[in-house]
Amino acid sequence: MLTPKTRLRLQEIIDRIAAAEPVSLAERIYVQKFADRDPTVWSWLRRARRTQVQGTPREGLDRFLAQMDLGEVGPEGAFDPRRDDLGEWFSGAPGWLRRS
């Protein structure tokens, strides 16, 4: 459970990531530490990265996918069954998402 102070600090850093503003390595590590343990923070960070890469989505399917946090953040994250192993593809996922 996040304290209000921690939540506000995380959201401030994540908002800067989404706006492509400077974020220090220490701040990125701080956010990633929480994202690895908390699905809500992981989702905030994923949406911020999507906004940073794709910009603010317009109306329609793009906006729906962004709000639902569906689809890939960028082309480098897409699964290619011809060259990728599904188990290795999920290896970068947070601990709470990895299969056992």
In words, what does this structure look like?
With 100 residues, this protein is mainly alpha-helical. The chain has a domain at 1-54. The chain has five helices and no strands. Helix 1 (4-18) packs parallel to helix 3 and helix 2 crosses helix 3. The two termini are 24 Å apart. The mean pLDDT is 79.
Mean pLDDT: 79
Query: What does the overall shape look like?
Result: globular
The rounded Rg comes to 15 Å
Helix content: 55-70%
Which structural class best describes the helix and strand composition?
Answer: mainly alpha
Tell me what portion of residues adopts beta-strand conformation: under 5%
Low-confidence stretches: none
| Series of secondary-structure elements, N-terminal to C-terminal | HHHHH
Distance between the termini: 24 Å
**Oligomeric category:** single chain
Biggest sheet record: none
Helical run tally: 5
Count the strands? 0
Quick overview of this protein structure:
With 100 residues, the chain is mainly α. 56% of the residues lie in helices and 0% in strands. The chain has a domain at 1-54.
Protein topology:
Blueprint (H helix, E strand, L loop, with lengths): L3 H15 L6 H13 L1 H16 L6 H8 L17 H4 L11
Helix pairs in contact: 1-3, 2-3
Structure characteristics:
100 residues; 56% helix; globular; mainly alpha
